[in-house]
Each structure stands twice: as structure tokens, then as C-alpha cells.
Amino acid sequence: MTNVNKVVLAYSGGLDTSVIVRWLQQTYACEVVTFTADIGQGEEVEPARAKAAALGVEEIHVEDLREEFVRDFVYPMFRANAVYEGEYLLGTSIARPLIAKRLIEIATTSGADAIAHGATGKGNDQVRFELGAYALKPDIRVIAPWREWELGSRESLMAYCEQHSIPVDFASGKSKSPYSMDANLLHVSYEGGVLEDPWAEPEQEMWRWSVSPEQAPDQPSHVELEYRNGDITAIDGSELTPAQVLTRLNELGGANGIGRLDIVENRYVGMKSRGCYETPGGTIMLRAHRAIESLTLDREVAHFKDELMPRYASLIYNGYWWSPERIMLQTAIDHSQTQVNGTVRLKLYKGNVSVVGRKSANSLFDQSIATFEEDLGAYEQADAEGFIKLNALRLRIAAGKGRNSL
Question: Catalytic amino acids?
């Protein structure tokens, strides 16, 4: 517990991190610097400044990182069409490398010798924060209170607040969700409570960003998304920043019951975990991006991207955003996006996202070849016979040797 003079804490202003501030001050006898990031969680982050000051913190950082979050983390991930285990759009995972980056930058500029976070020893976030921190500053010290202290419940945290003069109204708030929640501009996640039983259906009151598909409007909504180099740059003809794009798609998707997910996933630490997620804008983005790629990407490039994607998604889920292999994959993915330009038209209706149109100046679709009508010699159908026979040669040889007999 020695040799720590200053520590930068990822501070939310809630119960856990408010306790951590005082615990660090008393356990390590060090100066605590707090860092609070607005990445679109939907709650005012500025009150964290007053809460940190009330705990005796003198150096307080409260930053709006929404544009950087979407531009430099969400958009690159969606160029890869990244989905973990076939379903999860990685909303929590992709926020952690940005927070780790800013923790290290603040630690460097403020002369801190350690960083701290409020992730528990059971989850993935501890891995994501710390792998990112070590990749960016290998000699940094990381303090993870949940792996050190003996506090193990909300009741024990509240008792600590009383014992160590932590303002309880700062720590507890007026109401407490029965779920462990994480929110940013890409998603809201829900874990714990009744969700710890994989058989229990989520309560309708739990969902915050979306109406249920049953309660969504009876008339569909249509939206047009414009792409440049694989990124959305405009919605219905209006140029928007990355954060504005995702905000607008969250509104459209949530109003139409889009983006709810209930899964059991495999955590990196080894256990299975049941979680529910709302990702309305991301669900629309994934469907639309695959649609514009279907028009503009070469077949083998598209298929190769799909082979790489599960590996890329696992790297993000497991905390390897700053690894050389993720950066290598990103370079290849970004190169594939130079021709991914154009417009996708979507229909949003009662939880569904349907592609109803796509166009691009870089389209590889040739109607004169693909048509079912007269193609005026654009495609010589007789050529298919030799193509088929050559591809069947090994199968015919094997069959002739009796290997393919029924």
C-alpha cells in the first residue's frame, strides 16, 4: 500500500466510485484525481464534479467524449461488422479502450503513478481497462479496489459511507435500479437482479431506450443513410457528425422497438453471464452497413472480412483494442472501405430493420449481366458448362474410385 503518491480514478459519481475515492485516500494515503467521461450515458455528468470536490478531490476532470467515442471507436468497429458470439454488438466493450486511454493521458500529464477503476474481479471490464492501460503505459500501476477490499455488498458500501463521512445522498441517489447497468451512446446493458435466472423474462419496465415491438407504431418509418468510406455521414440528406448520427438512429430505432437483445454470453474470465442490451442505433447501423457492402465489395473481400470478423469481435470483447493484431486487422478493414460509398434506404417496423433500397457510384452490380431478361451477349451461358466440369473434376475422380458412393 506504499509508493503511490497520486492516482487517477475513473469516477462515475455513484456509490461504488465515491467509496473508492475515500478508500484510496485512506488506504494508500495518496492524492486522488478523478476523471468522469460523458460518452452518451444519458445522465448529467457535471454533478460528478461537485461530488468529487465534496470528497476532498482537488484535480477533477469532467469531459465530453461523445464525438471521439463514436468517430474513433464505434465507427471503426462497425466497418468490421463486429458481432460477438453472433449477437452482441459490443456496446460496453468498445467504450473501455477510450476510458483507459484518457486515464493514461491524465496520469501522464498530472504526474500520477497509478490509475484505479471500479470494475469487479468477476467481470470483463477489469481486463479491458487494464490491458488498455498496460498497452499504452507499461509501467503504470493499476489499483482495483474490488480485488483488494473486503466490501462485498451495497449494504457494506453504505456502512463504509457512514463510517468515513461520505455524503450518502451523493452515493445512494434517490432510487436504485435493481439491475447493474452500463450506458453509453451505443447501448444500455442490464445484468443482475431477476436476470441472474436465464429462464426469467425481463420486465417490460426495465427497458429505457425502446418501446416494445408490440407497442411500436403500426406504420413503418423509412430512413436513408449516406455512406462515405464505410461510415454514415448523413441521414435523410442532412450531414451529421458521428455522435449526431448515432443519437438520431437511437431515436428512430427506439421509437420502432428495435435493438432489444437477451443473451447468455461467455465472459473472458471463464463464466457464463446473462445480460440484456438495448442497441437501437447500432442494430440499424449493422444492417445498413452490410447492405452497402453487398453492393460495393468484391465477393472474396466480403467473404474474407466475414472470416476475420469473429476474431476482431473477440479482440474487442476481451480488451485487446490496443493490441498490434487488432490494429493490423483494422488497417485491412479500413482499406476495404475505400469503395464503400452510397446510400441505403431502410424500413423500420415493430422491431425489424428491412433494407428496401441501396445505390452507389461504386456499385459492382451490373444489371446487364444479372438480368433475367435478354442480356444481348453480356454473359455467355455456355461458358458455365466448362466451369462446372472443372470444379466437378475432383468429385468425379473420387466417385470413380468409389469414395462418394451412397
Answer: 16, 96, 125, 180
